[in-house]
Design a protein that fits this description.
This protein is an alpha/beta fold and 386 residues long. Helices cover 35% and strands 17% of the residues.
């Protein structure tokens, strides 16, 4: 597969004219305009389909029945074009394909979205392009196809290396399958393969958690994301715990799991740069940092969230935007209006300054009830990173 057009050398556009600001003058009781937003944004792309629903997950996801991927591809590219032009950003700093299970999408769909992005704004040849992958839909040839389409970073949902825990979570892969995918990914994306793992599971002990993590740290690449299990209403795992059939570990035990993991990661060279994210050898995720630092981001696809200034409408304040959840309804809206934005909320400068929302969940809750507990501590210990 030939390299996509947006990766080939091309002439630089003329530098955009910079506005010359007059010196500020003090005007009693006059309201100062909000500071100008940088002319760049991150881009989140939501692929809403999965092969099955995991027992703990309440993300916006659907089991496809006769999926028309060509129509979905067309709508994703059209919404990307509409919202990037609406934002008038000149540069897309990173792209993240999340879900759902975006590794179920074809490499052609991934390439089409990236081609569209590069036509609407500058997307550097070395920009971080991440795709989430599930072990059962990420064989070696498929991963190679994603790399040829422009993906240069992979995030693998391993979640556990214990087959009993994987069955409890409703995962459709085994530990061996997950490790096989990890090995293939490291060959294709060396230094740019991340793994997700969950702790605080029913009946999980500190020793079983640290034993699995120790095994993973012997095999993983340079980025690890730890997530405390959060029981979400409407999920089958939530119902089992509510019925009393599954005992959850006490918060003191979960806190010990988290502290033990931090120590283990630190001992093998990882540094923590966010509540849930750890990296070594400089492998921090540009996209994760965009959320953590409260930067603009555009969300496309069913149920995606975004936070950016719609400058093409003459606006100067950032908006929080949510796309229509259900894929078929979202596609109809995209075909009719160019985008499927269902809700828009204008944010005050204070809300922008205090916001670190991610497109599917807030990073403060990424470690469940521990999130807020550790936030102040993290600013003190890793604030220099972010």
């Amino acid at each position: 597969m030939a390299a996509p057009r947006w990766l080939r050398p091309r002439a630089r556009l003329a530098a955009a004219l910079r506005c010359v600001r007059a010196p500020r003058t003090w005007k009693p009781r006059a309201q100062q305009p909000p500071p100008a937003e940088p002319a760049q944004a991150a881009l989140y792309v939501h692929w809403p389909y999965c092969q099955k629903r995991c027992s703990y997950c309440n993300f916006n996801k659907y089991i496809p029945r006769g999926l028309d991927e060509e129509s979905m591809r067309s709508c994703l590219t059209r919404e990307a074009q509409t919202l990037i032009r609406l934002s008038q950003v000149q540069r897309i700093s990173s792209v993240f394909f999340g879900g759902g299970t975006p590794s179920l999408a074809s490499p052609l769909t991934i390439a089409a979205v990236l081609e569209t992005v590069s036509r609407c704004a500058h997307l550097a040849a070395d920009a971080e392009i991440t795709l989430e992958a599930n072990p059962t839909s990420a064989g070696a040839s498929r991963l190679a196809g994603f790399r040829a389409s422009g993906v240069n970073r992979l995030s693998i949902g391993i979640q556990s290396l214990d087959d009993a825990e994987l069955r409890l979570l409703g995962r459709n892969h085994t530990a061996d399958e997950a490790l096989g995918t990890l090995e293939e990914a490291k060959k294709l994306f060396p230094g740019r393969t991340s793994v997700d793992i969950i702790f605080g599971l029913p009946d999980q002990s500190v020793s079983s958690w640290t034993g699995g993590l120790e095994e993973l740290l012997q095999l993983c690449d340079d980025h690890v994301s730890l997530y405390q299990l959060t029981l979400e209403r409407g999920t089958s795992l939530f119902k089992q715990v509510q019925r009393g059939s599954l005992p959850m570990p006490k918060q003191e035990v979960v806190a010990e799991m988290y502290e033990s993991a931090r120590e283990m990661l630190r001992d093998v060279g990882f540094r923590q740069y966010e509540v849930s994210n750890f990296a070594r050898n400089g492998a921090l995720s540009t996209h994760n940092l965009a959320y953590w630092q409260g930067s603009q981001y555009i969300g496309i696809g069913p149920g995606a969230h975004g936070r950016f200034v719609p400058r093409a409408h003459g606006e100067s304040l950032r908006e929080a935007r949510i796309q229509t959840l259900e894929p078929d309804s979202w596609m109809k809206e995209v075909l009719a209006f160019g985008h499927g934005t269902r809700k828009r909320t204008v944010l005050s400068p204070l809300e922008v300054a205090s916001s670190t929302d991610a497109p599917r969940s807030c990073p403060f809750s990424a470690c469940g009830t521990l999130g807020l507990l550790w936030t102040a501590r993290l600013w003190a210990s890793v604030g220099c990173w972010v």
